[in-house]
């Protein structure tokens, strides 16, 4: 792990010797042409193939929308269509030069009421959606001054700790009186509070690593720390569905990035083998470091990384593993310790464990857990730790109290109850949808339940119909997903009662029949 710690402290000769030794072993064992693959011992996560008819209809609908978009732009330039309130013709001309803006203007805007819905309450099992209206075809919105109480199936409140009452809220409120609401300093100056250091020790204990470092923002935990670990002469192997924060951090690092197919171990091993045998481009010198970056639960797919196979590859090819547990920590595993516990992987085999506090812990920020050497290196060299604002005391106390409850250190079984309730809710919800023949992705125990909708017309109708029935959901389409895999992403919580889930499932089932969303159903 010390080798992963610093960019310029590796011994080139030792690295080359390791490289040539490993290269010889690979070639002598015939690994390049091996045809027999080891059978995965991990839980199978079946993903149905996209029906051809659904794919054709989806492409056809997007083609019609794009065609009509060009006609609409022509009519706007000609002055025959005036639905672009707030924009002049010159602005529209400049915007039309980029396809992203064309897409946003003519497709995304048409269903703008289904996105960016403002919330006026705590995002618990239920929340208040602020009512709004538009008189210019969704270019702009106006608030009506009212709100609607809805069942919340869109927030990442996995363990139900996003609440305004209880021990976590009480601890956060007390921290406001003791410390105030801000630190007004970075970690390296006067921003490191004793409660934050206590949280770091608790995180390390919780995930099973020697040390940990916490940050005030989840996105920058990836985007600002990966560049501190990797650099020129290094190789990053990234799953194609990794989060944008990982992609940003990998690009900022200056490392060579190679992407393997999602959860495809054949693709990953092929890249690893070629990297070890071929080395760096042109010089063919060995890579200084090879880092495999995966997520615990993929936020759009609901499935877990094939971590056991990845650990085998790490040991076989002398690589390192960076595991993003943003959606898995607290949410899966018998005691909520994430995907390593869920899949039976020793945390010691994972070089760097990253996670966020915005989901299961009802707070904000993120952490890096690793060896003392790596954590100390990040304290000195990470831009997030050096220049970023440190985590505030109320947030730290919220997270610390949640974590102690999950670990049972509060003297109750409330943490175990919540973890078990989330698992039960996830299995119950997913099983019902599968029995009703919906297209559902993900692992059985995952609280992220993506329901495939495919066509853009059905995507917005599904969201609007649920909104009428006072159910708040998140819909996701292109470019956040592939063009034929638009979906509704359900996020379940331990705070959801069986009555809430039954009501939601009943309404989803009814809308699914209405829109022809189920397997072997082809309603246009």
Write up what this structure looks like.
- With 524 residues, the chain is α/β, with parallel strands linked by helices.
- It has helices at residues 2-5, 12-28, 52-77, 89-95, 99-108, 167-179, 194-207, 218-223, 226-229, 244-253, 265-278, 307-317, 339-343, 372-381, 383-387, 393-406, 414-435, 456-468, 498-515; strands at residues 126-133, 142-152, 211-215, 234-239, 256-260, 289-295, 320-324, 352-356, 366-370, 448-452, 471-472, 474-476, 487-491.
- The strands form 3 sheets. A 7-stranded mixed sheet has the order 3-9-8-7-6-4-5, sandwiched between helices.
- Strand 4 (234-239), helix 10 and strand 5 form a beta-alpha-beta unit.
- Helix 6 (167-179) packs antiparallel against helix 16 (393-406).
- The radius of gyration is 25 Å and the shape is globular.
- The protein starts with a helix and ends in a 9-residue tail after the last helix.
- Residues 6-44 have low confidence and may be disordered.
Write the layout of secondary structure elements.
Elements: H1 2-5, H2 12-28, H3 52-77, H4 89-95, H5 99-108, E1 126-133, E2 142-152, H6 167-179, H7 194-207, E3 211-215, H8 218-223, H9 226-229, E4 234-239, H10 244-253, E5 256-260, H11 265-278, E6 289-295, H12 307-317, E7 320-324, H13 339-343, E8 352-356, E9 366-370, H14 372-381, H15 383-387, H16 393-406, H17 414-435, E10 448-452, H18 456-468, E11 471-472, E12 474-476, E13 487-491, H19 498-515
Parallel strand pairs: 2-11, 4-5, 4-6, 6-7, 7-8
Antiparallel strand pairs: 1-2, 3-9, 8-9, 10-13, 12-13
